[in-house]
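Chapter review: from sequence to fold.
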Amino acid sequence: MVLPHGVVQTPAFMPVGTVASVKTVPQSLLEELDAGIILANTYHLYLRPGYELVRRMGGLHRFMSWPRPVLTDSGGFQVFSLNGLRKVTEDGVHFRSHLDGSSHFFSPERSIEVQRALGADIVMAFDECTEYPADRERARSSLEMTLRWAARSRAAFAAGEEAAAGPQSLFGIVQGGMYPDLRRECAERLVEMDFPGYALGGLSVGEPRELTREIIAAALPLLPAGKPRYVMGVGYPEEIVEYAALGVDMMDCVLPTRAARHGLLFTSQGRLNIKNQRYAEDQSPPDPECGCMVCRRYTRAYLRHLAAAREPLSSLLNTLHNLAFYLDTMRSVRDAISMGSLPELLASVRMRARRAEG
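The token string follows.
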């Protein structure tokens, strides 16, 4: 993907920088990890520090000193998660801030206005995320609302072209709950609107992992292969390889950073809880097959000590390793695609996942 702030090789994994910061990790180290694009959160930046302030600071890239591409989500998922603090209408969503209880309103037009001000390379249409479980009638209603809001997002995006800080691309989002036929219908109708890229939203909201894969496999073939196809909020390392093999171009997930803060490391040998007492005198690196800056320098014993002592460095080192593992996983997928060996890589990842579970 050729974007205003750089070229992104796909399939790509995007570290999540919710409030214009990937938790615990400075931007210089993200560059060393070769993160090609990161995600920032419209809802959180709208509330704090405020999108007008970010605009005055020269946009998100300058504000956070990040020279590479950024994608902003629409805020739809975060508003969806404010159960009891929101009211959805045709116009948009009335909600209360989780910070101070103040009242706010998000519509497709407001979401686009905020994202235009933030200045991300890729912005997302405002959608209604369908909860799980949801019956068919509810999923249909959410699908129709999302399509109407997608059309309004597209119109607002076109109208705001002159006020934009620079070139941006708007992606549409496929909804439809856990009903494959509704997902396919939403994808077809969204493609008729001719967005530069498309996303599958409303996943990883509590459904079984097998169902996530089924929905991706059902909807993805209906999205143009020549445009970026983005699955939002997924997944474990073995899953992102599976999804890339299906044809997904972009993925993001809080798992590598969130798990790191709780002492969970993703490795070539499976998941490793570094807080476990058995690592107290383990002189081996966190992952013997990993060449990241953490595995080259530190032992499991030291990382276990940092976690037990609740030393802030623990979160940084764990996060660096997990992000390196995810980004290296995607690099391996890209290499396998180039060499024509993706089926072999996929078989290897599946076998390793089965061994880890056993």
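Two observations follow directly from the output. The chain has a mean pLDDT of 96. Residues 12 and 67 are 17 Å apart (CA to CA).
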